[in-house]
Specification:
This protein has 441 residues and is an alpha/beta fold. It folds into three domains: 51 residues, no CATH class; 245 residues, 3-Layer(aba) Sandwich (Pyrimidine Nucleoside Phosphorylase, Chain A, domain 2); 84 residues, Alpha-Beta Complex (Aldehyde Oxidoreductase, domain 3), CATH 3.90.1170.30. The strands form four sheets. A four-stranded mixed sheet has the order 1-4-5-13, sandwiched between helices. Strands 6-9-11-7 form a four-stranded antiparallel sheet. It binds uracil (URA).
Length: 441
């Protein structure tokens, strides 16, 4: 595509005029075919980032990005096909449990997931801590696995929404990531290409989320819900608090261990509640249950009776893990994912009740010890992370351990001080606050 044609699109954006469906469609096709000058694509992204675009143009953009690659199709099963997307949090391991739990309830979950972004962990990095787990699936492989067992979790790749691959890479280096229409089109185009009937969006909000305020989270949620609906997908967003870490484990293999515990009917209630909340909403949206209460009961049942765990084991085997390892992972996760011996205990400096834990401080330290990346080529160290021993609202005594830090190189004094200060302990027990802040539909 000629750069002067892209310049016309840029002018429309700058002057708040519609871009024109045909012109936008040609541009996205050229991006997907890598037939556009990088500098022209960069100018267009900068214009959209700076001036924004209408919701009509956002829907057209998303639709064209979805159509730039393969689209999964499900024929008579299409009403059962669901997924969720989270904007990313600390200790956010929901997908690992949600996909098999929903499959155990009879739904189909062809989940595409990402690697860690910034301080937040990524589902793919977590799954790749399981020996043999293969996230590089073709659209055909995804379709076959889901048809066989009901769920799979695959890494985003260039077969699906390839226009996003290039646009995302340019956004990453041109400081144009934080644009609501661009985030919306990027996320929803990939989800729509899964051939979804229903989608739940977990829009994180708080000190350790990309959206710090309820207003920003609501704006993003409204944009994504409107565009998903514009593409014919049933969609609801749950805005949830992301100040305190989710559940008990943070870090790649550590989060797999916690997820297996939840799938065994155990684990921390905070994590279980989120799985139940997201899962029941999808069961209702897919008309598998008549009301949210029945959805909650159904998800709780598959977590407690072993059927969600069985689906997780099947998913591991279908994605390359040997049956022997998959079975041991489900029965005795520590025999497959041992926890590092390099550990220090972080202790309370006063007595009282746990009031808050600063997720952002924990995430930054875990990332600088190898739990996350700073550059695309950085190698993840799977067993770096934290196990939280004392949770919000629990009583704690001075000198008691409230968190264990698992590391590969010893933390320095400054890091230990930051970790010690990342908890706030108050004299009075704080009100138990729900993670759910608002629902957008
Ligand atoms: N995740 C995506 O896939 N795209 C974005 O733009 C942001 C988060």
């Amino acid at each position: 595509m000629e750069s002067k044609e892209v310049a016309i699109l840029c002018d429309s954006v700058i002057n708040s005029k519609p871009m024109g469906e045909k012109q936008l469609s040609n541009f996205i096709a050229a991006v997907a075919a890598r037939e556009v000058e990088l500098s022209a694509a960069e100018s267009w992204l900068k214009a959209v980032h700076k001036y924004g675009i209408s919701s009509h143009d956002t829907i057209t953009l998303t639709n064209e990005m979805m159509n730039s690659g393969s689209i999964l199709s499900w024929n008579e099963q299409s009403h059962l096909v669901v997924d969720k997307h989270s904007t990313g949090g600390v200790g956010d391991k929901m997908s690992l449990m949600l996909a098999p739990a929903l499959a155990a309830c009879g739904l189909k979950v062809p989940m595409l997931a990402g690697r860690g972004l910034g301080h937040t962990g990524g589902t793919i990095d977590k799954l790749e801590s399981i020996p043999g787990f293969n996230c590089n699936l073709t659209p055909e492989q995804m379709q076959n696995i889901v048809q066989n067992i009901g769920c799979c979790i695959a890494a985003q790749n260039d077969a699906i929404a390839p226009a996003d691959g290039l646009l995302y890479a340019i956004r990453d280096v041109t400081q144009t990531i934080d644009s609501i229409p661009l985030i919306t089109a990027s996320i929803i185009s990939k989800k729509a290409a899964e051939g979804l009937h229903s989608l739940i969006l977990d829009v994180k909000c708080g000190t350790a989320a990309f959206m710090k305020t309820k207003q920003d989270a609501t704006e993003l949620a409204e944009s994504m819900v409107a565009v998903a609906r514009g593409l014919g997908i049933k969609c609801q967003a749950q805005i949830t608090a992301m100040d305190n870490p989710i559940g008990s484990h943070i870090g790649n293999s550590l989060e797999v261990i916690e997820s297996v515990e939840i799938l065994r009917g155990n684990g921390h209630i905070d994590t279980r509640n989120l799985v139940v909340m997201q899962g029941s909403a999808l069961l209702l949206m897919a008309n598998v249950v008549e009301n949210i209460n029945d959805g909650e009961v159904m998800i709780e049942r598959v977590l407690d009776d072993g059927s969600a765990l069985k689906k997780f084991e099947e998913m591991c085997i279908h994605q390359g893990v040997t049956s022997e390892i998959a079975n041991r992972l489900c029965q005795e996760p520590l025999s497959v994912l041992p926890i590092s011996n390099n550990k220090i205990e972080i202790i309370a400096l006063q007595s009282g009740y746990v009031n808050s834990i600063d997720s952002m401080a924990l995430a930054n330290i875990a990332r600088s010890h190898g739990a996350g990346r700073f550059n695309i080529e950085d190698i993840i160290i799977p067993d770096v992370g934290f196990i939280i021993k004392k949770h919000i609202g629990e009583e704690i005594e001075i000198g008691q351990c409230w968190m264990e830090f698992y590391f590969s190189h010893a933390p320095n004094d400054d890091e230990i001080m930051q970790l010690s200060q990342s908890i706030t302990i108050s004299e009075h027990i704080s009100e138990n606050q729900s993670r759910l802040i608002a629902v957008v539909e």
